[in-house]
Write a structure and sequence with these properties.
Strand order of the largest sheet: 9-13-10-12-11-14
Helix content: 10-25%
CATH superfamily of the largest domain: Immunoglobulins
Number of domains: 3
Bound molecules: zinc ion
CATH class of the largest domain: Mainly Beta
Distance between the termini: 74 Å
Radius of gyration: 22 Å
Order of helices and strands: HEEEEHEEEEHHEHEEEEHE
Shape: elongated
CATH architecture of the largest domain: Sandwich
Length: 275
């Protein structure tokens, strides 16, 4: 009788520990990284093991309908694609991932995405959960900066409140820790470079400055005068250029190659003016 009782207890304790392990996947992860962009066709991000950069990360993405705890889709992708922003920030660019997704196959409009790295059948959480609404585009640039500190969430909430915006977009983009700024609304945003096709061969901007990727944008100077600093996603840009097609609520982001400019496509993103 006594023995049996003890057995039951040890079973209960083991079950409890197993349950805890399932609910809280190990955070002693060998890899770091995050989801950095979600749009109508793909999810992208990066993952790496800073202690062993040859250790290629297998990433698993779990897609949830907003408010539900059971994933509706699992996607697997290897984080071995080259990204220039990682090359700059991590000194090693070969840890990006991008996977196609067709949101139209799901019912509903609001989703959550969780990323994990999988190693020896163990799951390690990668960055924070990202929310996504059908038809929107979410880009978190300068994404290589570290993630995963619990304080960033509070900071993001505070920042979103401070800017008077309660949208999940604002709390998401502010999570990179940048200044929130004042919302100017949603702009139509495209990419350009200094090639003949994009800039007619002009190697310097209208302001006279040499354009820099991750910094220079072209805007309608009657909307955003030269020198204006704006935040798009988590990147702060400075207006240094203009363009004949850039009128009203349009912004052209400078990239250092034509391929990257084209890859930006056309996105609609909220733009925040910084002081
Ligand atoms: Zn170009």
């Amino acid at each position: 009788m006594k023995k049996n009782f003890r057995k039951q207890w040890s079973f209960a304790i083991i079950s409890f520990i197993t349950m805890l392990a399932m609910v809280f996947p190990s955070s002693g992860a060998p890899a770091r990284g995050k989801i950095t962009g979600v749009d109508s066709a793909s999810i992208s991000g990066w993952a790496w093991n800073p202690e062993d950069t040859n250790d290629v990360q297998q990433v698993e993405l779990h897609i949830f309908r907003s408010g539900k705890s059971e994933p509706i889709k699992y996607l697997h992708v290897t984080a071995d694609q080259y990204r220039e922003d990682l090359a700059a920030d991590l000194k090693d660019g070969w840890h990006g991932f991008s996977v196609k997704i067709d949101w139209s196959e799901f019912e509903g409009s609001d989703f959550k995405i969780k990323a994990y790295t999988v190693k020896d059948d163990k799951y390690y959480t990668l960055g924070e959960t990202v929310s996504y609404s059908k038809g929107s585009s979410k880009a978190v640039q300068n994404a290589a900066r570290d993630t995963g500190k619990s304080t960033t969430k509070d900071a993001a909430n505070t920042a979103a409140k401070a800017s008077g915006s309660s949208s999940s977009e604002a709390s998401q983009t502010a999570s990179a820790g940048s200044e929130a700024g004042q919302s100017l609304g949603v702009f139509s945003i495209s990419g350009y470079c200094n090639c003949e096709k994009c800039s007619g061969g002009h190697k310097v901007t209208y302001s006279g400055k040499v354009p820099q990727a991750g910094h220079t944008i072209a805007a309608d100077l009657s909307v955003l005068p030269l020198g204006s600093r704006v935040r798009i996603g988590s990147t702060v840009y400075t207006v240094e250029d203009k363009g004949s097609a850039i009128q009203g609520h349009k912004i052209d982001i400078y990239y250092d190659t034509h391929d990257k400019a084209i890859a930006h496509g056309r996105t609609s993103q909220e733009v925040f003016l910084l002081r």
